[in-house]
Amino acid sequence: MSTSINMIDVIRTKRDGGTLSDAQVRWFIDAYTSGGVADEQASALLMAVFFRGMAPGELATWTAAMIASGERLDLSKVGRPTVDKHSTGGVGDKISLPLVPLVAACGAAVPQLSGRGLGHTGGTLDKLESIAGFRVALANDEVVDQLRTLGAVICAAGDGLAPADRKLYALRDVTATVESIPLIASSIMSKKIAEGTESLVLDVKFGTGAFMADEVSARQLAETMVGIGAAHGVRTVALLTAMDVPLGRTAGNGIEVAETLDVLRGGGPSDVVELTLALAREMVALAGLDADPAVALADGSALATWRAMIGAQGGDPDAPLPEASHVQVVRAPSSGYVTQLDARGVGVAAWRLGAGRARKEDPVSPSAGVVWHATVGERVEEGQPFLELRTDDPSRVPAALEALDGAWRIGPEPVERGPLVIDRIS
Ligand code: URA
User: Fold this and answer.
1) Among residues of the chain, what percentage have pLDDT more than 70?
2) Residue with the nearest Cα to atom 3 of ligand 1?
3) Test site for ligand 1: of 66, 187, 224, 228, most ligand atoms within 8 A of the Cβ
């Protein structure tokens, strides 16, 4: 640790809109991670970054220092091109589940090291844990072996990857500094780069159900993350996608796995299929492979890879998925067309039914969630079941219904749902 750098100068430089030197950035990340900088001083710096932002070079060094705070997975023995995907999170966003085996079936290795859900957006690991026996905690050599043999793994990111992010994220959470584009971008990219992937496709969502509410900030986040990827030699492409309407027909854990199986069997909701294929095509292209993901979906090879992946991680791909003991049905009050189905309302309802957690140590229910029988633009008839609220604890239903109050509308005129993929940034 350098003796010529002190934390008060670092805070003052950023507070006054200056650019931190590489040495200052490296010193701060290292000292904070190892307990050498107090939380109040780190908080002041994060708030200064929140207001002043970071220059591109400063952010590249900040991210590099976060990566260097832990281990970097060595995927050189995998024997296939490596490519991963990250989504900034949305409601009904189960896309990683069909996408990982699909891209693996096209010949790539997909090291999907994921996190758990927090708040109204679901977590990939929570969904997978609704499959009996499925193990998300894998040792690094198990990850590498599975990538070599199957090309597909979805597991928890180990504690060794970017430990600086864990400390900084916890501090941002309690200091109102989460919503800063350089801090979000470095947090996401440090974990993805430490994972060792050669290329990366980002699904950056905006809308009521997303982390970023508007397109302008989502675009800025996407451009920042693509820039960090390039600075670290990771080929990175971002798709900007709409998240005002929840994806598919289900938001929850086990019910999203069931929808994934529909997609892998060649059916499933058209928006889930469209986004899965759009992301898969980008991933296959970045991996330099000459394969058509639509073929791998149609010929059953993606489904076979899914079954092998679930089995390799201790799960039973044929085990029945958990069913909720209580189902509350909301019927269409009139005939017409769904003109609104708000992603945030649906996400909060699923969360309140037990599908999500408020604190990171909370358990989640594998069977809780919301099913919608029609989405924006589709016709419904009066009295037909429109929504299903599923839970094992009926006392949760009133709060879930409250979240859905005003979140959907049925009108006499058909409306067209807007495009899902808005732009591509590379
Ligand atoms: N997800 C992350 O991993 N980090 C952030 O800062 C925000 C979302």
Assistant:
1) 98
2) 188
3) 187
Domains of the chain with CATH codes: 7-53 (1.20.970.10), 83-312 (3.40.1030.10), 326-411 (3.90.1170.30)
Quote the CA–CA distance of 353 and 351 in Å, as a whole number: 5
Q: What is the pLDDT of residues 256-282, one digit of tens each?
A: 999 999 999 999 999 999 999 999 999
pLDDT digits (tens, 9 = 90+) for 48-80: 999 999 999 999 999 999 999 999 999 999 999
The rounded distance, in Å, linking the Cα atoms of 156 and 398 is: 33
What's the confidence (pLDDT) of residue 282? 98
Enter the DSSP assignment of 396.
G
CA separation, residue 29 to residues 26, 37, 39, 148, 227 (Å): 5, 9, 12, 34, 20
3-state secondary structure of 222: helix
Cα-based angle 259, 263, 281 (whole degrees, multiple of 5): 130
Segment 152-166, tens digit of pLDDT: 999 998 889 999 999
Ligand 1 pocket, 181 CB below 6 A?
A: no
Report the run of H or E that residue 182 belongs to, with start and end: helix 181-194
For 167, phi then psi, to 5°, come to -70, -45
pLDDT, position 307: 98
Residue minimizing CA distance to atom 1 of ligand 1: 188
Strands in 408-411's sheet, in edge-to-edge order, are: 379-380, 336-341, 408-411
Higher pLDDT, 105 or 121: 105
CA–CA separation, 274 and 245 (whole Å): 14
Rounded CA separation 83/111 (Å): 7
H or E stretch including 203? strand 199-206
Residue 404 has pLDDT above 70, yes or no: yes
Q: Which helix (H) or strand (E) holds 385?
A: strand 385-391
Give the Cα separation of 87 and 214 in Å (integer): 16
